[in-house]
Specification:
By secondary structure, this protein is mainly alpha-helical. About 65% of the residues lie in helices and about 10% in strands. It has one domain.
């Protein structure tokens, strides 16, 4: 990895340096872009907020979305398992 691969971003006045690995550079860019979009959206709605307040609110929003997605994922897995059990039962004992 060369020094030229290092990328630097400004997030609320903090310089974020990132050295991408071969397989995660797009994910890192996507994450940084998401955070920057959330920061800009919040600052445009509430320009008087301090950067620290914006950072906390963005972190809380993203954490909430993460938890909601995890809950939805778990629920979908449980539904899938239930559907699979019902399908196996419908096929009868020879399916087990």
């Amino acid at each position: 990895m060369t020094e030229s691969q290092e990328q630097e971003y400004n997030v609320l006045g903090c310089k974020v340096k990132y050295r991408p690995l071969q397989n995660d550079s797009q994910n890192a860019k996507t994450v940084i872009d998401l955070v920057l979009r959330e920061v800009e959206a919040l600052k445009s709605k509430r320009p008087m907020l301090r950067d620290t307040d914006v950072a906390v609110l963005v972190a809380l929003k993203l954490a909430t979305e993460k938890i909601e997605l995890e809950d939805e994922y778990k629920s979908n897995i449980l539904k899938l398992e239930e559907s699979l059990e019902m399908a196996l039962q419908a096929l009868g004992p020879e399916a087990n």
